[in-house]
Design brief:
With about 250 residues, the protein is mostly helical. The chain folds into two domains: about 60 residues, Orthogonal Bundle (Transferase(Phosphotransferase), domain 1), CATH 1.10.510.10; about 170 residues, EF-hand (Recoverin, domain 1, Orthogonal Bundle), CATH 1.10.238.10. It is about 60% helix and about 5% strand. It is built from 15 helices and four strands. The chain has a two-stranded antiparallel sheet. A two-stranded antiparallel sheet has the order 3-4. The longest helix is centred in the N-terminal third of the chain and has 28 residues. The chain is elongated. The two termini are about 50 Å apart. Its cofactor is Mg(2+). Belongs to the protein kinase superfamily. Ser/Thr protein kinase family. CDPK subfamily. Pfam families: EF-hand_7 (PF13499), EF-hand_8 (PF13833), Pkinase (PF00069).
């Protein structure tokens, strides 16, 4: 620990005898410039560890219970939370790069399945939702990106909201936020793709056609007919094509 904090060993000597003599004297110089930026808790712990009195010297258990380790754990947890928040926002920003059909399928999956709860996503939604009204406004979303130095233009912010809220409202709810903030391949897992396939395959003939997809998107109640036409057109699916499950999974995840 001494070496990690200072970059030096606690004792030195020109000969082994000199080194042993210095170690036995245990005269630690913790007030030198070397320790100027090191906390009092860290210095205190060093004294407890490097002690010639066996009765006073800290055991491993006592070392781990020392206040300095509590601070290290708190700092580590804070850094971990910050990284998780950044990951959520970066994933959210990247959602707009997906094709229209994939985004629509992810949105439908979120509405017909029980999505796994990611604590980082839940916490970030609550943090961004400054008014605590269960929706995130355009302004709140912009503030969240600005705080993480992820400056997005109005056009990019509008694109995120537009790709999630198909009703034209300038906000997104929790389900919509989760859809775009989760890992794409977690949302489009084989299990979820099969659920979506069965949702579209209303006549249960084991295949999904362009017509099935159109009717399925319409049934979801999320999209207007004009939006559905644009989504289906963007997918490039021909009227004659019929997808079995494996092909459908590839289409959705493309």
């Amino acid at each position: 620990m001494y070496l990690l904090l200072t970059g030096r060993l606690p004792f030195s000597g020109e000969t082994p005898r000199d080194l042993l003599s210095e170690a036995l004297s245990c005269q630690l110089q913790l007030e030198s410039s070397l320790w100027a930026d090191i906390s009092k808790d860290a210095k205190n712990l060093i004294k407890k560890i490097i002690n010639t009195d066996v009765k006073e010297r800290y055991s491993i258990q006592k070392v781990l219970e020392h206040p300095w380790f509590d601070q290290v754990r708190d700092d580590s947890t804070e850094d971990s939370h910050s990284e998780a928040e950044l990951r959520v926002l970066e994933t959210l920003a990247g959602f707009t790069t997906e094709n229209k059909f994939t985004k629509a399928c992810m949105r439908v999956i979120a509405s017909i399945t029980k999505m796994p709860q990611d604590p980082a996503i839940s916490q970030e939604f609550s943090k961004i939702d400054e008014k605590q009204n269960a929706i995130i406004s355009k302004e709140e979303l912009r503030n969240a990106f600005d705080k993480k130095a992820l400056s997005l233009s109005d056009k990019e912010i509008n694109a995120i909201i537009g790709d999630l809220n198909y009703s034209g409202e300038q906000h997104i709810n929790y389900t919509e936020f989760c859809t775009a903030s989760m890992d794409k391949y977690e949302v489009l897992s084989p299990k979820n793709c099969k659920t979506l396939f069965n949702y579209f395959d209303t006549d249960k003939d084991g295949v999904v056609t362009q017509k099935d997809i159109f009717l399925g998107l319409e049934k979801s109640g999320i999209f207007t007919k004009a939006q559905i036409k644009a989504i289906v057109k963007d997918s490039g699916i021909s009227k004659a094509k019929a997808f079995e499950l494996e092909e459908f999974e590839e289409l959705v995840s493309f």
